[in-house]
Amino acid sequence: MTSVTGPPDQMVAVRDELTPMMSQYLGLCEDYEDSLVLFQVGDFYEAFCEAAEEVARICEITLTKREDSTGTYPMSGIPIDNAASYLERLLDAGYRVAIADQVEDASEASGLVDRAVTQIITPGTIVDDELLSAGTTNYVASVARDEDVFSLAAVDVSTGECLVTSADRERIAEELERVAPAELLFAPGVDAAEFDPDTLAAGAMVTDFDPDAFARDAAHDTLAGYVPSPDAVVATDAELRACGGLLAYAEYTQGDERLEYVSRITRYDPRESLRLDATALRSLELFETRGTSTGHALVDVLDDTSCALGRRELTSWLRRPLVDRERIEARHDAVGEFAEHSLVREEVRDLLTDVYDLERLIARVSRGRANARDLRSLKTTLDVVPEVKSALEDVESGKLRDLYDALDELEDVRDLVGRAVAEDPPIEITEGGVIQSGFDDELDELRATEREGREWVADLEASEQERTGIDSLDVGYNQVHGYYIEVTNPNLDQVPDDYQRRQTLKNSERFYTPELKQREDEILGAAERADKLEYELFTEVRSDIAAESDRVQALAAALAELDVLATLAVVAVDNDYVRPEFHDGESDERGIHITGGRHPVVERVQPTFVPNDTRLGGDAGDIAIITGPNMSGKSTYMRQVALVVVLAQLGSFVPAESATLPVVDRVFTRVGASDDIAGGQSTFMREMSELTDILHGATADSLVLLDEVGRGTSTADGRAIARATTEFIDDEVGAYTLFATHYHELTAVADEREGVFNLHFTASQDGDDVTFLHRVERGASSSSYGVEVAKMAGVPDRVVRRSQDLVDAEAAERGESGKPAASQLRANGHEVTQTTLPNGSEAAVEADETQSAERSADAETTPRDDVLAEIAAELDGIDVARTTPLEALTRLNDLKRRLDDRDS
Ligand SMILES: Nc1ncnc2c1ncn2[C@@H]1O[C@H](COP(=O)(O)OP(=O)(O)OP(=O)(O)O)[C@@H](O)[C@H]1O
Fold first, then answer.
1. CB of 591 within 8 A of CB of 618?
2. d(C-alpha 513, C-alpha 175), whole Å
3. Which of 112, 268, 356, 394 would you call most buried, defined as having the most Cβ atoms within 10 angstroms of its Cβ?
4. CATH code, residues 441-542
5. Distance between CA atoms of 580 and 661, rounded to whole angstroms?
6. Measured distance CA(790)–CA(891) in Å, rounded
7. Which of 292, 598, 599, 602 to mutate to test the pocket of ligand 1 (most atoms within 8 A of CB)?
């Protein structure tokens, strides 16, 4: 078997004969067995053998070969100058990449150049800006456990942000979902299987790392490199182990160096935020959309940030809406002030566009990887700070004042960069041109020597022409021979005695004089020393700035927060959002009260949107049963309520005319079965396990969205489960609940229970057109419209009419009046137009009148047998909107076959 990582078999077989370089490569492959080793040879990173074949395939580069006395080895190389895009491909293909750099100057090495792995690039530990997307976080996380308590640590190696928390398994799984790490480590004793595979489905690579690094003492030692007293920062042994092991791994990937810029280890309590589990995050489409939706996530609507810092902060607010009313209201105050004072807001937003990603920048400074341009970018950002401060001078809200105070102008750093670093420096920091003149006397002297020398050389041509009388005499310079005086062959007899021959060309001779040689030595010596000195000065300046990284990070945090608050204000103003009010949830004011609520995403993608009110909890009853035809707007309505709650609690204004809300502790969602078939479980099983979580986990302060519970099983069971669930929530939980259902029978529960009430969506009919009004109204809908939708979909008329008869008969049995809307449809039905479909598309379905007239004769004679009853029940259960054309055909075919069987 061949393997891409680890020592290549071909080399192992001839280990003792390998050339020194190949033997070095083999050794590194053995040391970094689980990584693809990229081995610097000059300007390329080379891979050999199977690894070379894989790199060539993934990076689409040429596979070549290297031949020596021991054999022929496949080889492929990626250019170092342009490595990022290739590395990205290798990471995407699921590899860890060990970068083996030449760690000594090839020209100074005697024999084999020394090479060492300076960095292991893995999805969770990327620091290279070119590999990271702007404004995102990129975490590597680890989980450790102490009996039933799990601890999670996460670090963003590109910014130095480090988080630690502990909770039960379920909450840690939720936190993992929020943190969305790119890479995940499990400490010994934690089984990856204990975490819902869904959590890992976010794309985290699971990495095995030295279990010893997670031992208590080792972890303590590692952490002691970051904080003076580890036990004061972490609360438990498991936290210590998670955090210590994780940092040890992060160090390992960064060439075994301590990551000085990881100085903020923040311990947080998951209870400080609104709980949103994986299902809720997905079904509310906060960050990502699902196939069936509008194509936009909530974050797309909100993200109008000015800088990468703000973008990252906004994401983190959205992942963790708050539950502390005071903190939420402080954000609202600030958003309100920015919303009101558009001039201040726009000025701040405008200034923030010049702000660089300070967090990543200062991390690069601390890692010793920042170049002179990075430091100039730091200065550009710092130049903006006084202007931001002056724009904010008159702000009143507590939060904005706090941020104003937190804006450290870092004058010392700004001044240092201004004095030290050249204004438009090159990328390389070893070749001079990076330090300002006037910053260092010695450097200025060296530069003066160099300048004077060059001036002297520049004048030499004229003075030598005069002295020798040779008009064509040239003074020039080349890399190999240095300065020379060139005289063409016909003039050689005029050459003075002090000229010494340097080089003979075809038509001329090149000379130097002792003085020219001396000047040359001076110039080159000064230039070389100046470059070295510049490098030294630059690295000194860089370390001085690194020493201020805490202050830079604090400034970054304040700028990030300002950006988010100003952005939320813009979103509020542009989209007509209102500031939500909160109440304490005491019995008389309990409830979610929204007037004219809108779905923040759907309203942006549709030409028109119908606002709807919500009264849930308090006098209204805690549980709303929502009925209405498919596509009438039930799901949109439910999600809009949840999104208003989420927006309000993250600090945003909300899409409504007014909103008075409780502080919700948790949002649960259980949405349509067919939407969530990923994960391998049977859909019904999955539905029930989500329901279990809700019934166990919800409190009176939770918001629960139930969309079609019980659909994955037989109608009778489904109805029963739906009813029992409603009763349980009413009796035992008292959560704010929106329950959309096609089980019309469920509406009867409202007559029996005070805590339950009905809402419905209707369709209006104008002539032949059926239009969905998308307006929610009190009371139960007159019909579930399943039969009408079957008709619209072209189900044979006989089946439709038979179904309708059955439904009517059942309604009569229950003492209801039947389904007027359905009969109207039949009476008028030549053409039924459904005007609104997802994504604003239109569909028209024709029902053939003639055909239906022909078939009606049969219908009267049809006996009520079991087969038809079954078919009708099945039709009633079909959710046309969620049925693929193939499924529809298969089911139709099946129905038809059963009809045929019955007739034959
Ligand atoms: N308030 C509204 N104003 C305008 N259009 C709306 C509104 N609510 C929903 N819609 C549109 O109607 C479409 C269907 O809405 P939705 O998915 O909420 O229906 P539904 O009743 O949940 O359907 P089903 O029962 O099939 O799941 C949406 O995609 C949207 O385009």
1. yes
2. 76
3. 356
4. 1.10.1420.10
5. 7
6. 12
7. 602
In the chain, what is the straight-line distance between the N-terminal and C-terminal CA atoms, in Å? 61
The domain 303-410+548-575 is placed in CATH, from the list 3.90.10.10, 1.10.1420.10, 3.90.70.10, 1.10.260.40, at 1.10.1420.10
Handedness of CA 538, 541, 543, 549 (dihedral sign): negative
Instruction: Kindly list the protein residues whose Cβ atom lies closer than 6 A to any atom of ligand 1.
Output: 602, 606, 609-610, 612, 628, 630-636, 774, 836, 838, 879, 881
Question: Confidence class of residue 837 from pLDDT cuts 50, 70 and 90?
Answer: very low
pLDDT for res 433 = 87
Specify the CATH number of the domain 581-762: 3.40.50.300
Write out the two tokens for 384.
Answer: 């903006």
Provide, rounded to the nearest whole percent, the portion of the chain with pLDDT above 90. 49
Token pair listed for 569: 């204000």
Structure tokens at 836: 């609104």
Query: Could you tell me the strand order of the sheet in which 161-167 lies?
Result: 205-207, 183-186, 140-146, 149-156, 161-167, 264-267
What backbone torsions phi and psi does residue 127 show, to the nearest 5 degrees?
Answer: -120, -10
ipTM, two decimals: 0.98
User: Can you give the pLDDT at residue 845?
Assistant: 32
Distance CA 109, CA 118 (A): 18
Q: Residue 768's Cα: distance from chain center in Å?
A: 47
Q: Which residue has the tokens 């008389």?
A: 588
Return the residue matching tokens 């008009």. 471
DSSP letter for 621, please: -
**3-state DSSP of 289-355:** CCCCCCCCCHHHHHCCCCCHHHHHHHHHHHHCCECCHHHHHHHHHHHHHHHHCHHHHHHHHHHHCCC
What lies within 8 Å, CB to CB, of 73 at 6+ separation is 8, 10, 11, 22, 48, 49, 52, 65, 66, 67
CA distance 739 to 750: 12
Q: HSE-up of 637 (CA within 13 Å, CB side)?
A: 34
Class of domain 9-121: alpha beta
Q: Which range has the worst mean pLDDT, 425-434, 594-603, 771-780, 860-869?
A: 860-869
To the question of whether residue 437 is assigned a binding role by annotation, the answer is no
Residue pLDDT, tens place only, 631-680: 888 999 999 999 999 999 999 999 999 999 999 999 999 875 444 444 44
The neighbouring-strand residues paired with 266 are: 163
Q: Find the 621 Cα to ligand 1 centroid distance in Å.
A: 24
Sign of CA dihedral 862, 863, 865, 870: positive
Q: What percent of the chain has pLDDT over 70?
A: 88
What value does the mean pLDDT take over residues 827-851?
Answer: 32
C-alpha 823 – ligand 1 centre gap (Å) = 24
Q: Where are the domains of the chain?
A: 9-121, 129-272, 303-410+548-575, 441-542, 581-762, 782-903
Judged against a pLDDT cut of 60, whether residue 198 lies above it is answered with: no
Angle, CA 188 vertex, CA 182 and CA 189 arms, to 5°: 110
d(CA 632, CA 309): 40
Same fold for the domain at 129-272 and the one at 581-762? no
Question: How far is CA 267 from each of CA 161, 162, 163, 263, 665, rounded to the nearest angstrom?
Answer: 11, 9, 6, 12, 20
What's the CA-to-centroid distance between 631 and ligand 1, angstroms? 5
User: Tokens at residue 452, please?
Assistant: 């004077």
> For residues 557 and 405, what is the distance between their CA atoms, to the nearest angstrom?
12
Across the beta sheet with 36-41, the strand order is: 64-68, 71-79, 44-48, 36-41, 97-102, 115-121
633 is in an annotated binding site: yes
Q: What is the second-level CATH architecture of the domain 129-272? A: 2-Layer Sandwich (3.30)
